[in-house]
Design a protein that fits this description.
By secondary structure, the protein is an alpha/beta fold. The chain is 54% helix and 14% strand.
Length: 211
């Protein structure tokens, strides 16, 4: 039996999905949460196999909750289930180690199948989400460079920390620099790589084997 927790701030939608999933003989819903913080507390108590996580929720959004849960337990499977097909949300979710990304127009049969696939160790991605990711990666292919020729050793260290999702303040503490110095360095990194945001830096780091 696959134990599920649902995290969504819309009560009717949350309960409807729970009712549908409970009719599957292989799935049981062990808890429902209205925000990310509540989802984390429920996971500590119920120890689910899979979490269905919305993104836009009060107090703590789904991406932050996913990152926290994965830090607590890498074995827990998390599927983002949202109405939003925002490219930044998609990339940030997978950077937080989500195991799947689905949109809420999915049929209940496909949702049940996706849960079982993720439970078995696979990654599931909605078709529309796959196209968005492909377009994002196509746009980044021009950044596949020999980073040693572009970045200083200090900048490479900063890039490594950015790829791990660490904040500027935490990077400053880890490298013994002021937060202002880190911000200035990140601005130079963005300029050197001709990028516009931290997510592109993180993907650049993964593409080039920096992390």
């Amino acid at each position: 039996m696959i134990k599920i927790i649902l995290a969504d701030d819309q009560t009717l939608l949350r309960e409807s999905i729970g009712y549908i999933l409970d009719n599957d003989d292989d799935i049981t819903v062990v808890g429902m949460a209205s925000d990310g913080k509540e989802a984390i507390e429920l996971c500590k108590k119920e120890k689910p196999d899979v979490v269905l996580m919305d993104i836009e929720m009060p107090d703590m959004n789904g991406v932050c909750a996913t990152k926290r849960l994965k830090e607590m337990n890498q074995d827990i499977k998390i599927i983002i289930l949202t109405t939003f097909e925002n490219p930044d949300n998609i990339m940030e979710s997978f950077a937080a180690n989500a195991d799947g990304y689905l949109v809420k127009n999915i049929s209940h049969q496909d949702l049940s199948l996706a849960i079982k696939c993720v439970y078995a160790g696979l990654t599931v991605i909605d078709e529309s989400v796959k196209h968005i990711m492909m377009e994002r990666f196509k746009g980044l292919i021009n950044y596949k460079l020999q980073y040693e020729e572009i970045l200083t050793e200090k900048e490479v260290e900063i890039v490594k920390h950015i790829a791990k999702g660490i904040s500027n303040k935490e990077i400053a503490n880890a490298l013994n620099y002021s937060e202002g110095t880190i911000k200035n360095n990140i601005s130079r990194i963005l300029e050197k790589l001709e990028m516009s945001d931290r997510m592109q830096i993180a993907i650049f780091a993964m593409e080039n084997g920096i992390v």
